[in-house]
């Protein structure tokens, strides 16, 4: 049965996702659409017929509904208002697919270049090389992919590419000590910094838009999800190929893992980005569903963890691995919180899941306070090391971030501020993360003598 209210909401949601109209304008357009529908119903048309014709009329005015119809899951809409012969759209899709293939091959080839010089993929020297350069093989190409699809000034594009080149030069010129602290810090922080740099490519000329920055956070989460799914498919394909050829006494394991897995792994990244980008404006987005499933699960798990820690008497003050686990948990929780925020419609009224997200943030704040106390204790007891200073800085940054989010959530739930203000705070805080990860990845080695 045709649901007129659900379809009107889907239509207006799409316009909101485009981020080019004010809420007052959207409300006015929605009212105008309803008036059109009422007039057509009075003329004897059914709700579905009236809706389709009204949407089509809006498309003739501003091409708005034509774009919306291309993204709708209703095949009937596509038949009515979408020009299947849209040559420019098909050309753009073909170009993007070719870029995905080309960039996957380029990244895989860059990763295999060391083999030309006789370096063993599994040897210590080669692992050391990949630890420093793995993200540099693919992230600049992802940035270029976004530059092609998102308008941006030549100056901004040039600076982004210069930063990538400088980062590549520094991490390969630095005389790191084998298995030292600073190489570990660089390998962990450099990919985060480079991915945030990719985000600037994604934002393009809209880099000041908090809504667009929030879109990048959502795209990051969905890229990760797609990547996991596609990578699992790649693993199944490899194992299946090895298995069927083993029946012929042909061992393809070495070939598959040294070639298909190398090129395929970079292909997974490009495919995941392509899929997340291609569906970024689709209303039937699974981000809200995943957020509603995992936020309460994480909240219950973290509360249970705190209770278990209190009952067991174990603390992170003396156990280094325990403290690392604390920080890893905080990063995951912050990622989930950001994903929940990015999946939420800014115009929605406060609901149960906003309360759950606030509870999740407060629980994470408690854990972060414990972690900060443990780090300060270890600094005063065991002295200064690069790892401890990096952990201290990250936990302080996380604490401020979580504290700011908690305070703004309270104000929002009390009706003191709009949700857009909370989004703006979080998206602007991304620059703090970018700055800190750059410092740890590129300046810490200099400050601590590459130990």
Task: List the keywords.
451 residues; mainly alpha; 3 domains; 16 helices; 81% helix
Structure report:
- Helix 3 packs across helix 4 (64-71), helix 6 runs antiparallel to helix 7 and helix 12 packs across helix 14 (352-382).
- This protein starts with a helix and ends with a helix.
- Mean pLDDT is 81; it is low at 69-85.
- It is mainly α and 451 residues long.
- The radius of gyration is 25 Å and the shape is globular.
- It is built from 16 helices and no strands.
- The longest helix has 37 residues, at 210-246.
- It folds into three domains: 4-81, no CATH class; 87-179 and 192-278, no CATH class; 287-417, no CATH class.
Tell me the fraction of residues in β-strands, as a range. under 5%
- Describe the sheet with the most strands: none
The oligomeric state is single chain
Which structural class best describes the helix and strand composition?
mainly alpha
Mean pLDDT: 81
Question: What is the CA–CA distance across the termini?
Answer: 68 Å
Short description:
The protein has 451 residues and is mostly helical. The chain has 16 helices and no strands.
How are the elements arranged and paired?
Blueprint: H1 4-18, H2 23-42, H3 47-62, H4 64-71, H5 75-81, H6 87-116, H7 124-149, H8 154-173, H9 181-203, H10 210-246, H11 253-278, H12 287-312, H13 320-343, H14 352-382, H15 386-413, H16 419-447
